[in-house]
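Data availability (excerpt). The following record was deposited with the supplementary files.
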Amino acid sequence: MTKKNFIILGCFLLLGYIFYVGKYSNEGILKNVIERDGYDLHQMANKETIKLFIKPEWIPFTNEKEQNFELKLTEKHNTNILLVQVWNRGEDIYFSFDTSYNLNYSKGTFLYNGIFNEDGTFSTSGSFNDYNVYNQKGEKCVVGQNSQGPNSAFGFAIEPENYDVIKDGFFVEYSGFYLYEYSKK
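Predicted structure:
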């Protein structure tokens, strides 16, 4: 094969890859669904709750170094909830979560913690009330700082006066997601 043919073949492969990623990958499907580019999108439910368990070995009570994970904690409506980082910041321990998706090209459901308005705008409505944190004995833990985004990421902090409640691991019920249904036009 000549150098010219090899370059042409490489260009076709690159274009094919770009087309695939933009149209058929989970990221491409989600982008097209959210932008309503060839898809109908409908919000099906408000405040969909997910329940997670944080194991004690993931909690850095003494180590102030950021711990990076990519741990899949649960899956609901084609949405994987991942623990991505836990960081003892000195004044609190911060837990960061993100999502990944297993989307079908033609139709399906997914969770997202933002509202996709009909006019193409996007809004969020996260609050402290979206978090219910408690240990295996049912003892409640007060959530400190919390955040939402980018995309459907979320996180919260636990302050030192609550470390005793979470020392053996704890449950998180997060009700900040909205359930969406989409279908190809």
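Summary of structural features: Helices lie at 3-23, 26-34, 163-166.
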